[in-house]
Every structure is written in structure tokens, then in C-alpha cells.
Amino acid sequence: MRILPVLLVLPLLAGGCLVKTAANIVTLPVKAGAQAADWATTSQDESDRNYGRKMREKEAREGRERRKRDKECRKHPDRC
Q1: Which of 17, 25, 32, 80 could tie 73 with a disulfide, CB 3.0–4.6 Å?
Q2: Alpha-carbon span 26 to 39, nearest angstrom
């Protein structure tokens, strides 16, 4: 009979830790599913950012090739 009062007081001493832990356990699958969906999809903002980066890289590459071609033309005008 002494154990029963201790068991009744134990949740009060825990200070809500059990409730918080239970809530975390219940919401964990939902959070994991949302994170998986976020990783699997690309937002419009992300898509725009990636497209802009690709275009800047392409323009930089074309600029390097153009400068290289111009330099070759200055060195050897008969080849251009």
C-alpha cells in the first residue's frame, strides 16, 4: 500500500516531462513525413535560384571563351 501513494505523486514530481515526451512521440511521424516531402520537392524559389546560378555560370564560361578567342585573334589575325 505504500507504493500506491508514491505512484500517484510521481507524475506531479515529473513536472510534465511525461506529457512533453508523449507529445514528441506522437508528432514525430508527422514531422518526419513533412521533412521527407520537403527534401523530395523543389520550391519555386529554389528552382529560380538554381536557374539563375546556371545562367551566370554559362555567361561566365562564354565570356572566358570570347576573351580567349579575341586574344588568339590579336596574336594570329590570319587565323580568324
Answers
A1: 80
A2: 22
Ordered per-residue pLDDT tens for the chain, 80 residues: 555 555 555 555 555 565 577 677 778 787 888 888 877 888 899 999 999 999 999 999 999 999 999 999 999 988 88
Q: Give the contacts of 18 (CB within 8 A, at least 6 positions apart).
A: 11
13-49: buried (b, 16+ CB within 10 Å) or exposed (e) per residue?
Answer: eeeeeeeeeeeeeeeeeeeeeeeeeeeeeeeeeeeee
CA 73/CA 80 separation, integer angstroms: 6
- CA angle (21, 27, 28) in 5-degree steps: 85
**22 vs 30: CA distance, rounded Å:** 14
